[in-house]
Amino acid sequence: MSFPWPPAILSAFEIARTSEAPLSERLRIVADVVASQFPEFTQIAEAFVARLDLAKAGETAPHLGEPMPPFILPDQNGRLIKLEELLERAPVVVAFHRGHWCPYCQLNMTALAEVDGRTKPAQIVAVSPETQHYTQLLKEESGACFPFLTDIGAAYALSLNLAIWIDQKFSHAIAASGCDVPLYNGTQSWILPIPAVFVVRQDGTIAARHIDPDYRQRMETDWLLRSVAEIL
After folding, report:
1. Which of 133, 156, 168, 231 shows its CA 20 to 30 Å from the CA of 80?
2. In a domain, 33, yes or no
3. The predicted structure's pLDDT at residue 105
4. DSSP conformation letters of 105-164
5. Long-range pairs for 166-172: beta carbons < 8 A, 24 or more residues apart
6. Is 200 inside a domain boundary?
7. How crowded is residue 165: how many other Cβ atoms within 10 Å of its Cβ?
8. How many domains does the structure of the chain reveal?
């Protein structure tokens, strides 16, 4: 494992990664350890999430039945991936995450990799602001076969009203934990996407979505599988 986490988090992550519990329970394993071992960090994170909730962050992102805005983004190998071309073949699951440095994102991507074969012929794509070196790293670590796309500067997430600025207090706490997010993203800004999943029909409209400003919460894979099955 090549992620910059303290030993307590790494240990909790390994337990969660190998668990057969639902994704929400696996995420909670890590969240509980962070809360008990790093209370100051948790307090800062909770305050940040509370402000996002108050601002209703993510609520103006595309809704059910609306068109999913198109994208052209490079994958982990530098190949340009177009949403339009993907939809010509099958429905698409677009999963936004923060990056390889986030244990919740790692668990999320691992869970998606576990059910990828059961979503076929629908196609999963993961989207983050990280550069290709780090998207390739997360793809390998999660065991995923689907592409990991780079949204430079979170520009696509911004266009969907999904991008948020990480304030100075929270960004300092993340950096102090050993995560150099500006390095991973190739920019000095602290703009990240709200973790989100969109299930897109072949006509380009949104069949299901999950958006939660609390980065510790993700779409359950059972819900994802049901949503995909309904449009196949």
Report:
1. 231
2. yes
3. 98
4. HHHHHHHHHHHGGGSTTSEEEEEES--HHHHHHHHHHHT--S-EEE-GGGHHHHHTT-EE
5. 166/48, 166/190, 166/191, 166/192, 167/48, 169/44, 169/47, 169/48, 170/44, 170/45, 170/48
6. yes
7. 12
8. 1
> Whole-number mean pLDDT of the chain?
97
**Is the model's pTM score more than 0.70?**
yes
In a domain, 1, yes or no: no
Domain boundaries, position 165? 7-229
Cβ atoms of residues 23 and 221 within 8 Å: yes
**Which CATH number characterizes residue 103's domain?**
3.40.30.10
Closest CA to 68 of 133, 155, 165, 156: 156
Greatest Cα pair distance in the chain: 48
> What gap in Å lies between CA 43 and CA 47, rounded to an integer?
6
pLDDT at 3 over 80: no
5: pLDDT strictly greater than 90: no
Q: Specify the pLDDT at position 138.
A: 96
Tracing tokens 């991507």 back to the chain, one arrives at 109
Percentage above 90 pLDDT, the chain? 97
**Is residue 2 in a domain?**
no
CA atoms lying within 13 Å on the CB side of residue 155: 11
Both structure tokens of 50: 């509370």
| Close Cβ partners of 156 (under 8 Å, ≥ 6 residues apart) | 69, 71, 73, 127
User: What is the H or E stretch that residue 93 is in?
Assistant: strand 92-96
